[in-house]
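Write out a sequence, fold above all:
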Amino acid sequence: MKEKKGYVYVRLYPDDPYFSMACKSRYVLEHRLVMAKHLGRCLYPWEEPHHKNLKRSDNRIENLELRVIKHGRGAVVGDLLSELDVVKEENEALRQTLRTKEAVPA
C-alpha cells in the first residue's frame, strides 16, 4: 500500500477480480476497492465512494457512501434509486389512468 494526498492505494494483480479497476501502474484507490468488494462488483467510472468523515485514509465501509459524479457535489446512489422507484410508480399510475380513459368510449 502507498499513500498520495492522504488516499491509500492498493496494488492489484491480473488474477484479481477487481483488476480492471486498477490504473496502468496496477494500483487502485483503496476506498474504491472496499466499496466494490462490498457491492460484489467493479465500480463504474461515474461511481465515487465518498468519505463521510472526510478522512481519506479511513476506508471502513461504514465511512463510505457511494455517489455518482464527483463526490462533494454528487448525489448519493441510494437516494437516486429511491427517487427512481417513486418515478416508476408514478409512471405506472399514469399508464393505468390512460388505459382506463382509452377503454371508456366518449
In short: Helices lie at 30-39, 77-103. The first strand starts at residue 2 and ends at 4. DSSP finds two helices and six strands in the chain. Strands lie at 2-4, 7-11, 27-29, 47-51, 64-68, 75-76.
